[in-house]
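Researcher: I'm preparing a figure for a lab meeting and need a structural model of a single chain. I don't have an experimental structure, so a prediction will have to do for now. The sequence is pasted below. Please return the structure as tokens so I can convert it later.
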Amino acid sequence: MSPRTTEHMTWHQSHDTVDGVMVHPFDGEAWKHFNSVHPHFSAKSRNVRLGLCIDGFNPFGSFAPPYSCWLVILMVYNLPPGMCMRPEFMCLSTIISGPSSPS
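Model: Understood. Here is the structure written out token by token.
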């Protein structure tokens, strides 16, 4: 919704890759495979690509080992490397709490 952010959402389309160097998920084999399997989606540079990140921790420290909390975070991969890892472009979608890690 911000004009400053909108101009960066097509970064992955104009980014030049360097062979053997991975600076962004765009440079990886998974991104290339997705483009070959879904050419209709990848033809439109403004389609939003999201990364799903999961991280768990013990909210009570080492005093209560059976309890855990798992965060599910969505990240916008259309943005350049310096922007996609900023907190304002991450979305906390789910918090999984329980007596042990999710199975």
